[in-house]
Amino acid sequence: MTAESKATPEAVARHYDYITPFYEIIASRSLHFGYWPPGETGGSFAEAQQRFTGLMIKLLGSQKGHHVLDVGCGLGEPATRLAQSTGCRVEGITISPRQAAQAERWASLHEMSGQTTFRCGDAMALPFAAGSFDAAWALESIFHMPDRATVLRELARVLHPGGRLLVADIVLSDKTTPEDRAFLQNAFVARSFISAEDYPYLIRDTGFEVEQVLDVTGNVMTTFDALASAVQGKEAEVRRAYSDEFLAAIQEQWARIAETAKRCMGYVVITAKRR
Ligand code: SAH
């Protein structure tokens, strides 16, 4: 079941260029959900985002000298931390030219320019030769892209056999109504969502062996409350950068996403190996 989505690559790039200053004010340079250990809901949103990146780095298992691709690298914070903490070399690709420049600056600020490269490009046609990477991750980026299978086949092409893939993605259950789907697609500027059950088949069909499908839904859902808290005290700054209407609209949207998410949205982290 697919509803028409307005998320063209150009629209996705425009969305991020517009919304980024807001997330920089209230959180960090990472553009993904936060992660809380089972039973915990405390701490700031930015801390929870860093915890999530830490978990992804652990699951990817890359080491010094590895060449890693970050598909949908955002502002370069996860890639820079991955390079810093493991010693691997990371290439990031984003559909927004502005983000590529911001990521370059972030890496340079952290003296990681020697180990990282960022460029603007489309994941549907990766600008890399076959077998050029030891590992790749797509952190909350694949739902924006025109076709998951095409992107995954591209990832299989640029990874060498045995190379690890990690995908972190929002999933929707069979309780999702057409209205829920249309609302979430619009809210996340997503092209499409699939279910957790469909993921292993898709990953297998595109050239990988599935290692694990980790359901972290319960670990990431505090994100909406944490975002609401993150705004507190920053309202004036947000209003200066945007408008009164912007803040009210985004808070209303979060509340509706949180309500919809409880009913039908999940979050999975999949690790796989290129065959
Ligand atoms: N992984 C980063 C950013 C997530 S935001 C983080 O966790 O912080 C989603 C990212 O996907 C953005 O960088 C956006 O530019 C990128 N993206 C979306 N569609 C894309 C496409 N077709 N090709 C390449 N990157 C894309």
Number of strands: 7
| Number of helical segments with 4 or more residues | 11
Give the amount of beta strand, in percent: 15-25%
Report how far the terminal alpha carbons are from each other. 29 Å
Radius of gyration over C-alpha positions, nearest whole angstrom: 18 Å
Principal-axis shape = globular
The set of bound ligands, ions and cofactors reads: S-adenosyl-L-homocysteine
Helix/strand structural class: alpha/beta
**Poorly predicted runs:** none
Largest sheet: 7 strands, mixed
Helicity range: 40-55%
The H/E string reads HHEHEHEEHEHHEHHHHE
- Side-by-side strand order of the widest sheet: 3-2-1-4-5-7-6
Oligomerization state of this entry? single chain
Integer average pLDDT: 96
Describe this structure as you would to a colleague.
This protein has 275 residues and is of the alpha/beta class. The chain has helices spanning 9-26, 45-60, 77-86, 97-109, 148-158, 178-187, 199-205, 217-220, 223-231, 235-241, 244-264; strands at residues 67-71, 89-94, 116-120, 133-139, 159-172, 208-215, 265-274. Helix 4 (97-109) links the parallel strand 2 and strand 3. Helix 2 crosses helix 3, helix 6 crosses helix 11 and helix 9 packs antiparallel against helix 11. The chain is globular, with a radius of gyration of 18 Å. The chain binds S-adenosyl-L-homocysteine. Residues 9, 12-13, 16, 30-32, 72-74, 77-78, 93-96, 99, 122-124, 139-141, 144-145 line the site of S-adenosyl-L-homocysteine. S-adenosyl-L-homocysteine binds next to helix 1, helix 3 and strand 2.
